[in-house]
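Hi Y.,

Following your request, here is the sequence exactly as I used it, all 294 residues.
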Amino acid sequence: MLLSNAINVLTANQAGPYMDPKWVVLYFYYGGLIYAVLGRYDEAFAMMQKACCIPAVAPSAIVVRAYKIYVLLSLLLYGKTLRLSNCRSPVMTRSIVPLCPDYSALERICDNEEVDFDKASAILEYLEAHYVTFEKDKTIGLVKLVVRSIRENSIKKIAESFISISLSDVTRRCHLDDNDHTELYLCEMSKDGKINVRIDKKQGIAYFDETKIEADEHEVDKAANFIYKLDALMKQFDDRIRVNPSYISRVGRPLARGISTAIPDDGFGPPGFMPNINVGDIESAAAPFLIYII
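Below is the corresponding structure, written out as tokens. Let me know if you'd prefer a different format.
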């Protein structure tokens, strides 16, 4: 509703068509910015992805901006730049990507898998060397979030691999400044629920425990009931099929020589024939269950 209102205001006094391709691109671009400000980076990434995949015959300044943010959000969420959909315009590869060399450089830094290569420091060094460009694009904050994400992911890998480890080893493995810097990261990540850590400051050792995920018992019971209901309906459906005369006649019919033993998947009777069961019951039981799976 917020994005729709914004477009209505922009187009209220415009002569000609109510909406042209520019407003469609702006919808996804501004929507991505709003989601990013709210910290909903997955939705922001999806909006920028759509903005980059809109058909075009010439490069657009809006799409160039959207692609820059798309790259940073992809690095933030996945540690690499995900390939755009095949429905993207050829203009993207031919004209828009070459207009973003600094962001392509960040991609190459994150793709570097050399041993002991400090991606976070390399990005910060590149940011300092090209500060004017990122300041003009107003993406310095996102670049710093990418750096923090890289360091946090390094700490998560250590938490998954070790039960206890010295702070100095964490500092060395994660390329942090010193033990105080490491302790700050550990405390903040523990506070946010990303890891479960206890720090022995006297001995300088961090103890990692398995992160506990609290589940709502009511929601778990509700999902389990849907599963039981679906299972009962499927058994009922199976039982009625097995005693259906058309099914029995087909299964018991002698096969001619050279004919496959596989039962044709074209129903068990005349066109439109179905056993006496309400398929809607199965769909209604399955729909909520599928929501929990997604």
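The CA atoms of residues 42 and 77 lie 8 Å apart.

Thanks again,
Q.
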